[in-house]
Design goal:
Its EC number is 2.1.1.-. This is Ribosomal RNA small subunit methyltransferase G. Specifically methylates the N7 position of a guanine in 16S rRNA. This protein is an alpha/beta fold. The protein has a single domain, classed as Rossmann fold. Helices cover 39% and strands 19% of the residues. The chain has eight helices and seven strands. The protein has a seven-stranded mixed beta sheet with strand order 3-2-1-4-5-7-6, with helices on both faces. Helix 7 links the parallel strand 4 and strand 5. Helix 2 runs antiparallel to helix 6 and helix 4 crosses helix 5. The structure holds S-adenosylmethionine. The site of S-adenosylmethionine (SAM) has 17 residues, from strand 2.
Length: 209
Amino acid sequence: MALITKYFSDFTDVQLQQFSALEELYNDWNSKINVISRKDMESLYEKHVLHSLAIAAAFEFKAGSTIVDLGTGGGFPGIPLAIFYPEVKFHLIDSIGKKIKVVDAVAEGLGLKNVSTRHSRIEEVKDKKFDFVVSRAVAPLKDLWKWSKPLLKKPAPNADTQQPGLICLKGGDLHTEIAESGCRPRVMEVYDIFQEEYFKEKFLLYVPA
Ligand SMILES: C[S@@+](CC[C@H](N)C(=O)[O-])C[C@H]1O[C@@H](n2cnc3c(N)ncnc32)[C@H](O)[C@@H]1O
C-alpha cells in the first residue's frame, strides 16, 4: 500500500480505504477461486495494483468517459483504475466466468459504483462504444487492435482531450509483435514511471483510433 502512496497523493479517505481493502478481498477470493498466483499475491500492490496504475500515471481519463478492460482476469488493470477514477465508467470483460465472479465480488466489496462486468469474449460485444480500451497480458497487439478498433468512439476533430484508443500493458521484446500488428503505437517504458526493478522491460503501448 505504501508503494501506491509513494507515487500518488491526493486520494480521498474512501480511495485509500479501497486500495488497502484490496489485499484482504483478493486473499479471501483467491483462496476460493484461484485468479492470482500465490507468488504474485505476495506482491499484489507492486505487480498488480501499481502496474495497473501506470495507465493512470500516463493518461488522464475525463469524468464521464467510458473504458473497457479487455480480458480483465481478476480485475487488472480495471479495478485499480476504477478506484483511481471514481467519475469514469469501467466495463470489465473476460471470457472466463469464474474470473468475472471474483471481479464482481471485489467491486461489490469495495463499493465501486463505476464498475460493470460482462462474461463474454470481447468479439461478441457489438452494442457499445468506448473512449479507451485498456488491457494487460491478454493477446498479441495485432489481435488486441483488431478487437479494439470497432469498439472505439470516433476521435473528435480538434478535441483538446486525448484521442480514443487502445492502451495496453505488455512485457519483453515487442519488436516482432509491433511489426506484425500493422499499427504504430506510442511506446512508454513503465520503469520510467515507477522505479521498481519489476517494471524493467515492461511497456505501456498506446494506439490512437
Ligand atoms: C493472462 S490473463 C490476464 C488477466 C488480467 N488482464 C491481468 O493482467 O491480470 C488473460 C485473460 O484474458 C482473457 N481473454 C483472452 N482472450 C479474450 C477475449 N477474446 N475476450 C475476453 N477475454 C479474453 C482470458 O480469459 C484471461 O482471463
